[in-house]
Amino acid sequence: MHGSPSPDPSDPGHSPHVGSASICASGGGTFPFRTSNSLAAPPSEPPATIAGVEYQALYRKYRPQRFEDIIGQSHVTDTLAREVQESRVAHAYLFAGPRGTGKTTTARILAKALNCTNLGEDGEPCNTCNSCVAVTEGSSLDVIELDAASHNSVDDIRDIRMSVTTVASVGGAKRIFILDEAHMLSKAAGNALLKTLEEPPPHVHFVLATTEPYKLLDTIRSRSQRFDFHNVAVEVLAGYLDRIGKAEKYLAEPSALTAVARHARGSVRDALSLLEQVAALGDGSVEVRGVHRALGLADSEVYANLARAIMRQDARAAIEMVAALSAEGVDLRRFVTEGIAFFRGVFLAHYAPNLAEVADEAADVLEEWMRVSKEFSAPDVLRTLDHLAEALLRLREGREERLMVEITLLKLTRPETASDPVSMTARIEQLEQRVRRLSAGSPATPRPALSGVRDVAGGDAGGDVEATGIPTTPPAAEVRPKAELPEEPPASEPAEPDEASLEPAAAALGREPVADLTLSQFESVWPVLVAGVRDDLGPRRQALFREASPGGVEGSMVTLILPDHLAFHLEQLQTDDLVKQVVQERAAELLGGSIRIQFRAGSRTDDGDSSSVPDEETLTDKHQLLESPSAATDPDALVEGLLGGQVIEEIIDEN
Predict the structure, then answer these.
(1) 643 phi and psi, to 5 degrees?
(2) Are 562 and 569 in contact, with CB atoms under 8 Å apart?
(3) Where would a tag sit more exposed on the chain, N or C end, judged by fewer CB atoms within 10 A?
(4) How far apart are CA 271 and CA 131, in angstroms?
(5) d(CA 507, CA 584)
(6) How confident is the model at residue 633 (pLDDT cuts 50, 70, 90)?
(7) pLDDT at res. 628
(8) What is the three-class DSSP state of 516?
């Protein structure tokens, strides 16, 4: 093996050399060695250059040589060190966990400790004796490391069984067999190994390492002492990368190291490989921009902008976002993957008050999730996750990446273009709203966009614009006369919200304030008002507004109250001028005069009008509702009027 161990900190003058490519154990076959892939704490001095090797990868250069050098796995290393110290080492171990977490390296350190002649009191190998040096260099005759991916036949297991019977090279030494990727063993090979694994000679120990322990035979798992290796936390891994960067004299930004650790997903080896790549790209500098370029990632603010476009149903902004990402060379498949991770965090922010405990992310990321969750409803987050997950599956099938992403974002920003149940429900609600308007004698077409509300689609198309931002051209028979349309103020005069901006209905519609308005009068139009503003407010604002109820009237000022426990709803409604504008305009149409509204928490107040509290005589008895004959309704007329039907033949059943 062309080994490349890091220098022993206790022996700075030691210069490691290249070990042999294979070892032929007496009584057995030839067992090729390979280096383990893990990490060690950076030494105080740069390691000596190995003869014939100009450069070493960081994950090989800083490979751990002691139990304490392995990061993030103290539950494993502390236990093994104590077992070695107390001479209570099991005959077989099973190391299971994700890649790059130190399974094989831990096995090699355990082999060092078992044969170390100067073992420390804490169970750590000395790394200076002949046995430790031989294991480090890969030349020890008593440590046989096999790759089960290429040694998975019964014949290979037979060679192992023959080698097990061979004594160690030094009297009193242990023989350690490290079987990496053990889940690749065939069923026949696994069964052939059972007897030897269960009752090996006293001087033999087995270590099986695997990333997929469930693929091993149950009989193998039951004969081994299992240790589960975990992904390394982002903060721990970022701190480790900082020490490596200082040892290598990199100019590393803390945010860049955190980004590297986050995208390594707990793998120390992957983190060091990415750090090395970014440093080479930046000529010794490690910056966030370099991390994004190396991985083909979008900037972090892109996902917040995507959430904003979905909330505003801004299809144009979403499509332009995809075009910009493609122009920058961003990997769109990774963009979708990162988008799923972002909206998962937003979803967790809705339901996990202890977000910092359930999500291993930096504080700024958690704050971003919390901010977006306040504006993005949980059903919308679930719908977004469903669409992005479906897009990722299609991308993995080899579909055209840009087209799939554009279609997905179009479905998210234009629910009416999708055929999923949630989008169909939204379309049905719009149809029900139009039916209510027809039954109330109002025009079936939506009212024109309110003054001051920008077309969220970003286009300059003519015609009316619905609350969803879709330019529409109503039929000629339903077009309202120009004289009835509210006069819109010039777009070049943006004004700060003040007292006058809360009365757009009176200025736009030219109505006088309602005289002698009572609470009972306002309550009589309240159901129609709530139904009439649904389309204009949109799903998010409607969800907030429907929690309000009439609480009092003073002159032309109407107070809408919310329960005390809905403090978030109250804050959103009080700061959203669009809600007040929409409600005031609709109420002005229903009451024949302008009003002003305000939101507050509390209970209903008495406005001094006795008619606001209905007495027993005015209340309708439930039996009257059941027994009262309904107005004559001709079903044929309904079919003809609403659906454009025509009676072809009338069949009378004489029975």
Answers:
(1) -105, 0
(2) yes
(3) C
(4) 31
(5) 11
(6) low
(7) 45
(8) coil
Q: Point out the least confidently predicted range of 62-71, 246-255, 348-357, 420-429.
A: 420-429
**Contact criterion met (CB below 8 Å) for 541 and 579:** yes
- Residue that has been written with the tokens 């280096």 in this structure: 35
Burial of 18 (0-12, 13-18, 19+ CB in 10 A): middle
Output the DSSP codes for 210-247. Answer: ES-GGGS-HHHHHTSEEEE--PPPHHHHHHHHHHHHHH
Helices 234-247 and 268-281, packing angle to 10 deg: 50
When the pLDDT of each residue in the chain is averaged and rounded to a whole number, the result is 75
Listed in sequence order, the residues at least 6 apart from 258 whose beta carbon sits closer than 8 Å to its beta carbon are 234, 238, 362
Nearest to 104 by CA among 33, 46, 191: 33
Contact partners, residue 470, CB within 8 Å, separation at least 6: 414, 416, 457
pLDDT tens digits for 34-57? 433 334 445 444 444 444 456 788
SS3 38: coil
Q: Which amino acid is at 623?
A: H
C-alpha 478/C-alpha 494 separation (Å) is 32
Considering only the C-alpha atoms of the chain, give the largest distance between any 2 of them, rounded to a whole number of Å. 113
How many other β-carbons are positioned within 10 Å of the β-carbon of residue 273?
A: 18
Distance of CA 558 to the CA centre of its chain: 43
Question: String of b and e for 415-428 (b: at least 16 CB within 10 Å)?
Answer: beebeeeebeeeee
Cα 189 to its chain centre, rounded Å, is 41
CA atoms within a 13 Å half-sphere pointing along the CA-CB vector of 469: 21
Contact 164, 158 (CB under 8 A): no
Instruction: Choose among 495, 600, 507, 504: nearest CA to 551.
Output: 600
pLDDT for 651:
62
- Cβ–Cβ under 8 Å, residues 118 and 126: yes
Q: Which helix (H) or strand (E) holds 553?
A: strand 549-554
Residues paired with 177 in a beta bridge: 144, 206
pLDDT of 576 reads: 87
Alpha helices in 517-576 (DSSP H): 519-532, 534-545, 567-575
Residue 454 Cα distances to 312, 326, 414, 449, 465, angstroms = 10, 27, 17, 8, 10
Calpha distance 545→14 (Å, rounded): 74
Alpha-helical segments (H) within 12-122: 58-61, 74-85, 103-115
Cβ neighbours for 237, distance < 8 A, ≥ 6 positions apart: 71, 72, 261, 264, 266, 268, 271
* Residue 436 confidence (pLDDT): 74
pLDDT, one tens digit per residue, over 145-183 is 888 888 778 888 888 888 877 766 676 688 899 998 888
The one-letter code for the residue type at 542 is Q
Q: What is the DSSP string of 252-278?
A: E-HHHHHHHHHHHTT-HHHHHHHHHHH
Beta strands in 111-203 (DSSP E): 143-147, 175-180
Of the ranges 205-209, 364-368, 575-579, which is most confident?
A: 205-209
Query: What average pLDDT score do residues 343-347 get?
Result: 90
| Burial of residue 589 (number of CB atoms within 10 Å: 0-12, 13-18, 19+) | middle
Instruction: Indicate the DSSP class of residue 619.
Output: S
Per-residue confidence (pLDDT) for residue 617, from 0 to 100: 43
pTM: 0.54
Token readout for 500 is 């006058």
Stretch among 211-220, 282-291, 542-551, 646-655 having the lowest mean pLDDT: 646-655
Domains of the chain: 22-228 (3.40.50.300), 234-295 (1.10.8.60), 301-417 (1.20.272.10), 501-608 (3.30.300.180)
